[in-house]
Amino acid sequence: MSQSVQPSAEQFLALTLENDTAATVELFEQAGNWQERYRQIMLLGKSLPKLDDNLRVESAQVRGCESNAWLYHSEIDGKHYFIADSDARIVKGLIALLLIACNGKTSNEIGAFSPDCYFTQLGLQGQLSPSRTNGLLALAKAIKVAAE
Amino acid sequence: MDLQTLRSQFPTLAQSNDGYPLCYLDTAATSQKPQQVIDAMNHYYQYDNANVHRAAHQLSARATSQYEAVRDKLRQFINANSREEIIFTHGTTESINTVANGLTAHIKQGSLILIDSAAHHANIVPWQELAKRTGAVIKPIPLTQDCRLDIDAFEALLQQNPAIVALSHVSNALGTVNPVKELVSKAKQAGAITLVDGAQAIAHLNVDVQSIDCDFYVFSGHKMYGPTGIGVLYGRFDMLDSLSPLMTGGEMIKTVSFEATEFNQLPNRLEAGTPPIAEVIGLGAAIDFIQALPTAQIHAKERELLNYLQDALEKLGDVVLYGAHKDNIGAVAFNLADEHHQDVGILLDQQGIAVRCGHHCAMPLMQSLSLKGCCRASIGVYTNKADIDRFIAAMESVKELLL
């Protein structure tokens, strides 16, 4: 991805996500109903920092989202880092789920990552359908392409 | 016919997801189809399938007579003057493109085209393209604060003698109704060609094109309980006859030679290629379905239900309604406080509620409301009070999660 504006390496490295994939899947497996699942999604969304206004630009927008979603990528020392945001809270939470799985990972790890399996494990497989306008599928593809 | 029997004719509605029965409030996007429409299309493919208008065999004769009978039904349904004034298209979008393209030679550099600010993109973009081709100028007809067409501003714009006035009968995003008869009459006095997009009106109102007196009236089959892939272009005969065809090819010609080709007469002149025969037959069944209903009673019931929906949303609190008037048709547009419409839509979907969330193909309208988008709940002949109550209960849960 070549963008006119780009966050600094420090900004990319600053993102720390509390949960790893296994803990996240466990968290969602424990959720008793959809309300709890979506409450968790929104909490995860809150853990992602708000993207600076100067980075909320069209060149960073991921197409296929009804809401605005922005994605930045940088490869640092053989690992892939992402900064992303959305103006919709649930979409932002879904992005956080993707970043938990992919941020700071190598090309091989991201190449082997299956969004289908992951979101099925989370009980959110429906959100990945191409007919959805949440843009999750487009975001997952963009992350995979960036890490190729 | 009681409402329960009526509803049971729509097989799609009898499903649930994760224990939540489907609550379909997206009829303005596309209506569900009654069994008789599905059966009519199946029957055609099983027993009567042949191309129309050409072959010298019985099967084709049967297909052709069924196909052409729908044109007669439509003439009567919207009270057109003659059957030649009914053109089959693939939908409202193609109907408007056919007109906007066909009028190219009529429009001059600097000609004015007025467009309803609440129009669907299908009633905006074809005119923009016409303007690009001809050097015509487009001006939106503004809305009042309460999202109705601003009649004073419209009259002022008419002083500039527009060549074309493009209106919606019912706004797809808001459900507001335009007084099209009055607007068309004013536009005609100013010498304009008039087109009315009836996509959101045709299933909910009695449409009489001679009474509206517009030059063109367009709608889709799939929003009136018929199949997708079929639409109608009504035009006054002389107006239709003056359109240059958008598409050329088979069916629409009288003679073809490499020196010169002569086009056929209406309606064939504007129906190039093999038409969507099964869809036309399905549309015919949809008209039969609508006409068998006690129309006045159904319209009153839909009005009552929409008002109930508007009131219930209002009572819920923290909900903003847009252009919600008591005389609206079919749809209500809203947002939940400052929440993103998509978040609301995702959480409603979890509970089996189907609504549309987005810009509703009316970005200029969203811009004039300073919105990124909104949610729209829309009803049809099969919608009942329980659907509305379920939707409101689901909205309560959404509120609890988001606010």
UniProtKB/TrEMBL annotation, chain A:
Q: Transmembrane region positions?
A: none
Q: Which residues form a coiled coil?
A: none
Gene3D superfamilies, A to Z: 3.90.1010.10
Which domain of life, per UniProt?
Bacteria
What are the Fe-S metabolism associated domain coordinates in residue numbering?
26-144
By sequence similarity, the record places it as follows: Belongs to the SufE family.
PANTHER family noted in UniProt: SUFE-LIKE PROTEIN 2, CHLOROPLASTIC, SULFUR ACCEPTOR PROTEIN CSDE
- Protein name stated in the entry: SufE family protein
TrEMBL record, chain B:
Q: Any idea what this protein is called? A: Cysteine desulfurase
- Cofactor(s) required, per the database record: pyridoxal 5'-phosphate
Catalytic activities: (sulfur carrier)-H + L-cysteine = (sulfur carrier)-SH + L-alanine
Top EC class for this record: transferase
Function, as annotated, reads:
Catalyzes the removal of elemental sulfur and selenium atoms from L-cysteine, L-cystine, L-selenocysteine, and L-selenocystine to produce L-alanine.
NCBIfam families assigned to the protein according to its UniProt record, in alphabetical order: sufS
Q: Looking at the record's lineage, which domain of life comes first?
A: Bacteria
Instruction: List membrane-spanning regions.
Output: none
- The keyword Isomerase is annotated on this UniProt entry: no
Which CDD domains is this protein grouped with? Answer: SufS_like
Xref: InterPro entries: Aminotrans_V_dom, Aminotrans_V_PyrdxlP_BS, Cys_dSase_SufS, Cysteine_dSase, PyrdxlP-dep_Trfase, PyrdxlP-dep_Trfase_major, PyrdxlP-dep_Trfase_small
UniProt keywords, alphabetically: Pyridoxal phosphate, Transferase
* Record family assignment: Belongs to the class-V pyridoxal-phosphate-dependent aminotransferase family. Csd subfamily.
Q: What is its EC number?
A: 2.8.1.7
Question: Origin organism of this chain?
Answer: Shewanella schlegeliana
Q: What Pfam families does the entry give?
A: Aminotran_5 (PF00266)
Q: Which residues form the Aminotransferase class V domain?
A: 24-391
Taxonomy, top ranks, is: Bacteria, Pseudomonadati, Pseudomonadota, Gammaproteobacteria, Alteromonadales
